UniProtKB/TrEMBL annotation:
<keyword id="KW-0418">Kinase</keyword>
<keyword id="KW-0808">Transferase</keyword>
<dbReference type="GO" id="GO:0033786">
    <property type="term" value="F:heptose-1-phosphate adenylyltransferase activity"/>
</dbReference>
<dbReference type="InterPro" id="IPR011611">
    <property type="entry name" value="PfkB_dom"/>
</dbReference>
<dbReference type="GO" id="GO:0033785">
    <property type="term" value="F:heptose 7-phosphate kinase activity"/>
</dbReference>
<dbReference type="InterPro" id="IPR029056">
    <property type="entry name" value="Ribokinase-like"/>
</dbReference>
<dbReference type="GO" id="GO:0016773">
    <property type="term" value="F:phosphotransferase activity, alcohol group as acceptor"/>
</dbReference>
<feature type="domain" description="Carbohydrate kinase PfkB">
    <location>
        <begin position="8"/>
        <end position="304"/>
    </location>
</feature>
<protein>
    <submittedName>
        <fullName>D-glycero-beta-D-manno-heptose-7-phosphate kinase</fullName>
    </submittedName>
</protein>
<dbReference type="Pfam" id="PF00294">
    <property type="entry name" value="PfkB"/>
</dbReference>
<dbReference type="GO" id="GO:0005829">
    <property type="term" value="C:cytosol"/>
</dbReference>
<dbReference type="InterPro" id="IPR011913">
    <property type="entry name" value="RfaE_dom_I"/>
</dbReference>
Length: 321
């Protein structure tokens, strides 16, 4: 298990976005339409998508680098300010005036979400912008132990760009770990490790996962499609499955109180990356990520888990035995 994180070099590539929270009270229905009237008390912005992976890495005492794209608008300034506040370099950020910065706005009353409003452009990035991304990667990739690919299917990680990213990393001997999205996993061909959730694994493999045998078959199919070395499937309350060397292992969940699963996939991606970059085996990395996920799902919103929290949780479990 990861005891201390020192000098881990982690690069994140993926869909940057902003999570916008609008908090208020609701005491009446609008006279204009049968909808609640929310009186806003405060608002906040925080990094979402691949930015949430960055937040989780920072919480684990790692200072990563990120490559991503934002619009040329005022919300991009918020993204850049948030990254700068964490001490993250902005050299990997590409601005695109043909896109808006992705913003997910959530209206909450008494911690209950009433509605979510998404502002986004999800068409594939222009080839010249994709080439800028690959050029940035080519210049710095050899400095890193692992590249985390955070795909939210928002237009950045096109099949062409993914092929370029994976090829560049392979040429430099840098491990790649992808959190996938979408129906077609063949675009991730050549990645070292792929980390779908159960639903994504079912869709990608075409196999309905109902037991360990069908889970094994789904993992084998995903490995066949992607030519990856390992498949890691997050199973929510059932823990994490690892398919490696044609063998399936399942690590039971460590969550005691599930409050909110928002962002748990980002936490698992970050924790896996940190553990693997620290030299842990895929099995030990999944154990570490499982502990981190158990912590964040006990919190409200896109939370993070610190290294101290994970170590404390492990110590408490040993004491309880």
């Amino acid at each position: 298990m990861v005891a201390e994180i020192t000098n881990t070099k982690i690069l994140v590539i993926g869909d940057l976005m902003l999570d916008h929270y609008i908090y208020g009270t609701c005491n009446r229905i609008s006279p204009e339409a049968p909808v609640p009237v929310v009186e806003i008390s405060r608002e906040s912005f925080t990094l979402g998508g691949a930015g949430n992976v960055v937040k989780n890495l920072v919480a684990l005492n790692c200072l990563p680098t990120i490559i991503g794209i934002v619009g040329d608008d005022d919300k991009a300034d918020i993204v850049l300010n948030e990254l700068s506040a964490f001490g993250i370099s902005l050299n990997g950020i590409v601005k695109d005036s043909d896109r808006c910065t992705i913003v997910k706005s959530r209206v909450l009353v008494a911690n209950h979400q009433l509605i979510r409003l998404d502002r986004e452009v999800t068409i594939p990035v222009a080839p010249e912008k994709g080439q800028q991304i690959l050029s940035k990667l080519q210049q710095i990739v050899k400095e890193y132990d692992i590249v985390l690919i955070s795909d939210y299917n928002k237009g950045l990680l096109t099949p062409t760009l993914l092929e370029g990213v994976i090829d560049i990393c392979r040429q430099q001997g840098v491990m790649t770990l992808v959190d996938p999205k979408g129906l077609e996993f063949s675009k991730y061909k050549g990645v070292n490790i792929i980390k779908p959730n159960r639903k994504e694994a079912v869709i990608a493999s075409g196999i309905n996962i109902t037991d360990n045998d069908t889970l094994l078959a789904a993992c084998a199919k995903i490995q066949e499609i992607t030519a990856c070395e390992s498949v890691v499937v997050t199973l929510s309350e059932d823990g994490i499955a690892i398919f490696n060397n044609n063998k399936l292992e399942i690590i039971s969940t460590r969550a005691l109180d599930v409050v909110d699963v928002t962002g748990a996939g980002d936490t698992v991606l970050a924790a896996l990356g940190v553990a693997l970059a620290s030299g842990e085996s895929i099995y030990e990395a999944c154990k570490f990520a499982n502990q981190a996920a158990a912590i964040v799902v006990s919190k409200v919103g896109s939370a993070t888990a610190t290294l101290n929290e994970i170590h404390q949780k492990i110590a408490d479990e040993r004491f309880d035995r």
